[in-house]
Every structure is written in structure tokens, then in C-alpha cells.
Amino acid sequence: MLPKTRYAKSGGVNIAYQVVGSGSRDLVVVPGWVSNIDVFWEEPSFARLLTRLASFSRLILFDKRGTGLSDRVSDMPSLEVRMDDVRAVMDAAGSTQAALFGYSEGAAMCALFAATYPGRATALIMGGAFARRTAAPDYPWGPTAEQHLAFAEQIEREWGGPFSIEVRSPSMAHDERYRQWWARWMRSSASPAAAATLARMNGEIDIRHVLPAVRVPTLLLHSVNDRVIDIGASRYMAERIPGAKLVELRGIDHVPWGCDADRIADEIEDFLTGARHGAEPDRVLATVLFTDIVGATERAASLGDRRWHDLLDSHHALIRRELDHFRGREIDTAGDGFLATFDGPARAVRCACAMSDGVRAFGLEIRAGLHTGECELMGDKLGGIAVHTGARVAAQAGSGEVLVSSTVRDLVAGSGLSFQDRGVQKLKGIPGEWRLFAVEH
Fold first, then answer.
1. Cα 313 to Cα 183, 320, 325, 336, distances in angstroms
2. How many angstroms separate the CA atoms of 18 and 147, rounded?
3. What is the pLDDT of residues 33-55, one digit of tens each?
4. How far is CA 17 from the centre of its chain?
5. Largest Cα span, the chain
6. Tell me, which fold does domain 6-273 have in CATH?
7. In the prediction, which pLDDT does 281 show?
8. Quick check: helix, strand or coil at residue 189?
9. Closest CA to 258 of 123, 127, 158
10. Whole-model pTM?
11. Does the domain made of 283-439 have the CATH classification 3.30.70.1230?
12. For residue 421, how many other CB atoms are within 10 A of its CB?
């Protein structure tokens, strides 16, 4: 009998989810590329894994927007949007804290969620995962960008049958019943165009700079014989996530319900039931936004104190309205500038653009700078090198310009935002060189 399917509202999109089991700890499973939570239960090997996980947890399953039983969408989502969907599902399921188990590309989103919401993620488990989907000069564990785009084109040509079963589930690839289920699962999860678009979006994933900010207990599970994602990708992450544990499996499947399923369930159960709760996190991944009014001193001198303060009041009210609309958090304001944080970089960029456009009605221009990094929580204040970096980025911005670091630009891939390259620059007091980008708005 299938579990009851419910729907959580994430923005204007309905996200399908199921809750199975009644354990003392919540475990959210974040699927890979495409999914259908009803069809998952039709395959005995997959149902066996899910049942085992539900034996020691309250298991929460969901279909990402654009796939399975969830709403279809016109534009495929960025990691930030998908992260919001997890939060919406947790809220709808009454889960204040949960361990996250993401496999394949679902793992990257889990890592971003764990770094951004350490108070809601009790543990992070990643199966067959990667920090970056395509290869780079300092990251050889992936296809080239051209090869990955060719794979996306192959999807649209060959969708409908047991696509990619030979590399993702080779141990069962010659079982005709399983092949039929695999093809049905693929067709019921996404259309050919949607699957191809998701694949292209996944090709833009790069969370390498997020890894040191993951501060929750982390378990990585990866087969040394995985034909989709090289084991080197998990070894890379294990070296950069503080305290991470890597278990190298000996099977040949990329999917977690394959030949290593029992070992995977054993490792997850041991990891979760033996975990100790540490101190509350004092560091969090956040996008910081700095703004200030261009030519404030000259404008104040020309207007006089009373009129200038009236103008400042209007400016401050607009800034706070936009922060509230885009779920930003005001940290500090001094004179004509603001420091705010966001739990999603795309919202932060759009908020900065709305602020810049809005203040022009008052005859003002602002400059804005954004950076995403690990910040130190100091009561209601924020500190750390990421905050200083954000301030230095803002200092480089011109009148009316929203300037972001390359970290922000990389994290909002797929969000529809456009940027102009401002080149590599040195930021006063910040080590190294930084590539900056101006938002086109």
C-alpha cells in the first residue's frame, strides 16, 4: 500500500511529499536528477531500502519541483530554489530538525542547506555525490562541459526507454522487469525536455566553496566502481568538510537502492543512531549585502539637515520594505548604509536590484555589494572574513551598480540573473585576487 501523498506550498508551487515511519528522528531523502515518489515504491529493491530507513526514522520523501508528482514549472530551479522546497516540505511535515540524505545531484543541495540552516540540519548524508558536476582545471572528476551538454541532447533523443540504466544501475541492467520499471520511472518523472533542462542545470552546480562551511556531522557514501560520478569527487569533499566520514563501497551501482543498498542502510543507521548532538552552531553560511548612498555628504550639504533627514527616512523605509519582501535580515545601519544577510543568494541579488531601482524615485543612487561565505554569529551581530569581503566588494561598486563576488555568481547559476564581468581585482585587506561581476538590471 502506497504512503499517503500530501502537498507543501513553496512559493506558488505545490511540492509532493510522503511521510513514512514514526522514529524519534526525522530523515529527509533528497532524490537525484529526476524522481517520482509513487513509482519508487513499485520497485522492490527501492521499497526495501526506504522501508529499512523508515524503521529507525520518520522518513520524509518528496519530488522536486518540475518532477514526479510535484507541479511542473516553466523554468527549472536553481539550487537555492530547491533548497527552499526542502524547507517548505519540512515545515509542512512538522519537522523542525532533520538529517538530510541526498544522493547524486540531490546531495549538493543538501550540503548547501546544511551550511545555510545548521540549526535545522542535524546531519548530512551524501551518496554518490559531487561538489561540481563538470571538470575544471583543479577538479578533474567529471565530464567536460561539452560532454555534459551532449548528454543533455542525448536525453531528448532517447527518452522513453530505460535511459542510462547501464551506467546508473548496471547490476540490474539486464533484468527485463527492472528495465521496464526503470523506463516507467523515467517517463513518469519528467518529460524529455524537462529532463534535459535539469541535466543542463546540474552541469552548472559548483558548491566547492561551500564545503568548509558545513558544520554538521557528515557521512559520505560512494562506490569506488561508480560509473557516473568518480570516487575522487567524494574524497575531495571529505577532505574539505570538517570532520566528514567517507565510506568507500565496493559495488558497481550509482543508485543507492542497488547492490550496496544493505550496506548503505547499515551505515546510515549507525551514523544517525550513534550521533551525538554538539553545541549550537556559531557559524553559518549567508549572503551579506552592503549598501550606501552615493554622494551622501554633498547631498546632505545641499539639502540641509531637516530635508536630508526626511530623505533618509524615506530611503530607510524603502530598504526595509525590500528586505522584508525578499526575506533579508537587517544586521546594522549606520548613517546612510545598510548591512543585511540572506539565506539565499539569488534573493539577495534581486533585493539589491529592487533597492537600487527604488531609491531613484527619491533622486538617490546607491551602490551595493554582495558576497556569500561563512559568517560568525555574535548575538545579533555578524562577523568574519565573509562580512569584510562583502564590504570591500561594495566599495568597488559604481553609482547605481550591484556588484557581486564570483562566489555569488556561481551559486545563482540557473536563476535567470545576468552579469557583466568586471575582471579580477584586489580587495583591500582581503587575501588573494577576486573576480567581480556587475548585475544587469
1. 60, 11, 18, 10
2. 36
3. 899 999 999 999 999 999 999 99
4. 19
5. 82
6. Rossmann fold (3.40.50)
7. 58
8. helix
9. 127
10. 0.82
11. yes
12. 11
